[in-house]
Amino acid sequence: MNFLAKLIPGRTDAPTLPKRHRRVQGVELKTEAELEIMRQAARIVATVLKEIEAMVQPGMSTADLDAYAEKRIRDMGATPSFKGYHGFPASICACINDEVVHGIPRKRHTIRRGDLLKVDTGAYYNGFHGDSCITIAVGDISTKAKQLMTAAEAALYAGISQVKPGNTLLDIAGAIEDCVASYGFSVVEDFTGHGVGRNLHEAPSVFNFRTRQLPNVKLRPGMTLAIEPILNAGSKQTRTLKDQWTVVTVDRSISAQFEHTVLVSETGYEILTDRNQVPLALASCL
Ligand code: MG
Ligand code: MG
Asked: For residue 48, what are the β-bridge partners?
C-alpha cells in the first residue's frame, strides 16, 4: 500500500501507456499511436509465417520460402527488415536441424521430410518493425525433435507469461531458464532477445537465462520486446560457419526456436505477432 496514494485524491499508481514518446532506463516506450503502426508491422510478419507454415513441403528449397516471404511482405506494403541488415542477403533466416540462427536461404538447401525447420522474419512498416520466428515440423519428425519443439514454444510462453508492468527482465529470463531445464534441454546463451520498434534490434537485451549481464530494467507499458529463446537438444555451444552468418550447434544436435514481438500493456502483455489472430484472408485488407 502506498500511503501517499491514499492521501492524494485522484492519484492512481496504475501504470498507463505514455502519452508521448519517451525513453526510460534506455528503453523506448511507444505511444498508442505508435503501437497501432507496430501492430500492423507485426501482423504482416505473423501472416507471412502462418502462410509459410501452411505451404512448406519436402522438396522446396529455403530460397523458395525466402522469395515467397519477400514478395508477401512487399505486397502488404512493408519492406523486409532483414534484407541488407548488416549485409544479410535475404528476407528470412532459414535454419534446418542443427542450424541454430541466421541461416542464409539457399537454392541448394532442400527441405526434407523429417526436418526441423526454423523460419525467422521481420517486416518494416511505416517506421516500425515486427519480428517473429517459428519452428516447423516437416512431415513426421523424431520424438526428440517433437519434444524440443514443444519445449521451445513452452519456454517462449513461460517468458511471455512474466510480461507485466512491475516485473523485470530477470523474471522473463528465469521463467525461460527453468522451463527449458524442466524439459532437459539446453538454452543457447550466445544470442538474446531484444527491444524492437523503430529499430529491428534496440535496448534492452532480453536474456533467456539468469545472468549478471542482465540489464536491471523494470517492465513498463509501451515497451515492445522480441522474446526468442533458442533450445538445443544437446550442448548449448554454437559456432558460426564460413559464410559468416549461419550458426550451428557444435555437437550437431538439433535446435529449435520460437519468437514473438510482445507489448508490455497496462495490465500484462499483448502478443503482437500472434498468428492465431491472423486469418489468411486478412492480408488483403492491410
Ligand atoms: Mg527474429
Ligand atoms: Mg529477434
From this structure: none
Q: Is 5 a residue whose pLDDT tops 70?
A: no
Cα separation of 49 and 133, whole Å?
8
Q: Tell me how far the alpha carbon of residue 242 lies from the centroid of ligand 2, in angstroms.
A: 22
Cα gap 23→95, rounded to integer Å: 35
Give per-residue pLDDT as tens, 98-118.
999 999 999 999 999 999 999
CATH number at residue 50: 3.90.230.10
- Ligand nearest to the backbone CA of 120: 1
Would you say residue 269 lies in a domain?
Answer: yes
The pTM score is: 0.93
194 located within any domain: yes
Which ligand has its closest atom nearest to the C-alpha of 208? 2
What is the count of structural domains for the chain?
1
**What's the rounded Cα separation, in Å, for the pair 14 and 17?**
10
Q: In angstroms, what is the span from residue 251 Cα to ligand 2's centroid?
A: 24
14 domain-assigned: no
DSSP string for residues in 47-116: HHHHHHHHH--TT-BHHHHHHHHHHHHHHTT-EESSTTGGG--SSEEEEETTEEE-PPP-TT-B--TT-E
In a domain, residue 6? The reply is: no
Give 84-97 pLDDT, tens digit per residue.
Answer: 999 999 999 999 99
Q: Which structural domain range is residue 164 located in?
A: 27-284
Nearest ligand (C-alpha, residue 88) = 1
Ligand 1 center–CA 120 separation, angstroms: 5
For residue 142, which of 150, 134, 130 has the smallest C-alpha distance? 150
Q: Is the dihedral of CA 152, 195, 78, 160 positive or negative?
A: positive
Q: How far is the CA of 133 from the centre of ligand 2 (A)?
A: 8
Binned at pLDDT 50, 70 and 90, residue 45 comes out as: very high
